[in-house]
Amino acid sequence: MKRLFLTVVAVLSMTMTFAENEKLNSVENASAYNMAVNYDRLADCLGLSIDQAEAVQDIHTSFCADMMNAAGANADERESMVKKAVEKDLKYMRYVLTQDQYRKYLMLLNATFNNRGLIK
């Protein structure tokens, strides 16, 4: 009886540890796709005018929503959703930003993706 009880406790302990790690991985995964930024610092870094700053904030808010949708998607769909979100973001940013601002934005976005491990 003691052996049975200890076996059940051991199995439950290992199961709870495994479930905890899965939850932790999903939380880390979701935070990697959170692209929220400080818009004042982004505007200073890129040298945006007031009109550009408002447009960039609107575009980036849409990009953040698309990225969070990708975070909640299946692994099969996630890569294509991220690609579509980035393409849409870059297309709109290219329209709003000057060539130098766009180049800086690309460098920032690329560094963010590399640091979060979203680029394979």
Assembly context of the chains? single chain
Number of strands: 0
Strand content: under 5%
SSE pattern, N- to C-terminal: HHHHH
Q: Given the C-alpha coordinates, what overall shape results?
A: elongated
What radius of gyration results from the CA coordinates? 21 Å
Q: Count of helical segments?
A: 5
Average pLDDT: 80
User: What is the SS-derived class?
Assistant: mainly alpha
Taking the alpha carbons of the first and last residues, their distance comes to 51 Å
| Low-confidence sequence ranges | 19-27
Task: Sketch the major β-sheet.
Answer: none
Helix content: over 70%
Summarize the structure in words.
The chain is an all-alpha fold and 120 residues long. It is built from 5 helices and no strands. Helix 3 packs antiparallel against helix 4 (75-96). It is elongated.
SSE layout and pairing:
Elements: H1 2-32, H2 39-46, H3 50-71, H4 75-96, H5 99-116
Helix pairs in contact: 3-4
List keywords for this structure.
elongated, mainly alpha
Briefly summarize what is shown.
The chain is mostly helical. It is built from 5 helices and no strands.
